[in-house]
Design a protein that fits this description.
With about 180 residues, the chain is α+β, with helices and mostly antiparallel strands. It has helices at about 10-15, 30-40, 70-75, 85-90, 110-115, 120-130, 150-160, 160-175, and strands at about 5-10, 20-25, 50-55, 100-105, 135-140, 145-150. The chain is elongated, with a radius of gyration of 23 Å.
Length: about 180
């Protein structure tokens, strides 16, 4: 997953001077590869001004005052994931998401046979829900009835919750 940040010198940024550069994360050393290039140090080697992430390109939200070391560690952990859906699929705890119990609907007969104890129970769930046999995914709505959604709708739901998915990923991986 690609994460790019535009890191600026906060003091100059506050004075209306845009400086900084785009960096793809992860980098080997945040201080050497990013901060040393935009932030001045005093005689003791301490940073005089702080930094700000003034822009970013990522599939989730990044706060302008995000800890750059932590963000870099997150980028390292996300290197093997291409999409937010890939990250979501690997989460251990998906219960906090409204779409946590979505199933593939490639074989509706198998799903219905495995999910219901009788044809009557299946018919009631289908009859009160909204089922399109051409959709890709199926789930039980809050009333126990079946609803289906397309691949595009499912991906949209996941992408709309990207920031929360990343937060859960951080918790589970202690990042």
């Amino acid at each position: 997953m690609e994460i790019k940040v535009f890191v600026s010198n906060l003091g100059l940024y506050n004075d209306g001077i845009i400086n900084g550069e785009w960096k793809s994360l992860p980098v080997k050393d945040v201080h050497r590869d990013i901060l040393d290039k935009i932030i001045q140090k005093d005689e003791k080697g301490l940073y005089i001004n702080d930094f700000i992430i003034s822009d970013y390109e990522a599939p989730f939200e990044i706060d302008q005052y995000e800890n750059l070391e932590a963000l870099n560690n997150l980028a390292k952990a996300l290197e093997n994931y291409e999409t937010i859906k890939n990250v979501y699929d690997e989460l251990d705890d998906r219960d906090r998401f409204a779409f946590s119990e979505v199933y593939s609907f490639k074989d509706p007969e198998e799903f219905i046979n495995n999910s219901f104890s009788s044809p009557y129970e299946a018919a009631m769930a289908v009859g009160r829900g909204h089922v399109n046999l051409n959709d890709d995914y199926v789930y039980f709505n809050g009333y126990g009835n079946l609803e289906t959604i397309s691949e595009a709708e499912y991906l949209k739901k996941i992408n709309e919750n990207a920031t929360e998915i990343i937060e859960e990923f951080r918790l589970e991986n202690q990042i």
